[in-house]
Amino acid sequence: MADLIVALDVSTKAEVADVIARLGDAVDFYKIGLELFSAEGPDVVRLVKAAGKRVFLDLKLHDIPRTVERAVKSGAALGVDLMTIHASGGKAMIRAAADAAATFGDKAPKILAVTCLTSLDQTDLDDLGVQRAMPDQVEALGLLAITNGADGIVCSPREVANMNKVLTPAASKPVVFVTPGVRPAGADVGDQKRVATPAGAVRDGSTHLVVGRPILEAADPIAAAAAIRQEMDAALK
Question: Is 173 a catalytic residue?
Fold first, then answer.
């Protein structure tokens, strides 16, 4: 079973409430990113949780270990289900995040490490001075994260098949694979460079698919979400 997460690519709590009302029972998992959290703060998380929905808090934490530890505890106290950090923050930071989440027991959020943003390609890595090829960089960061306590990773659907093969044997627990950059066939890819269809992502091992504009900007958002869900379920069968 794979989860569909709708990205709340809006700026205000009023817009969030409208999205949740429009989608109703069709979606029970939402992503809150940096733009929305910066505008509305913890209250927007409380709003989504009060509606009975699950929350993926995608702030991509990257700081000294103590700061990340405290930030994770703050997110966990809000009841979020998934949180992101940057794998490039290093071993100590990853471990601090994982240990902080673990203090919440059964209510601990899953800590996900971002490998390489889906807006990046090989040219961008070259500009940053990264000498590895994109697949090798994603693999190295994923292994760093999983072997230091992270519950899973965020990677593009182009890399998830290989990451499943590499990380699952190295992990001491089931690995969560979250893939943004998911677009139904024929949909506009926007600013994403490494994309795949919902069926392709699920077949390759994605456990959580993040979709924003193809649902939020659809003429019928409920129908769009249902179509993606059907495609995911069919791929699993």
Answer: no
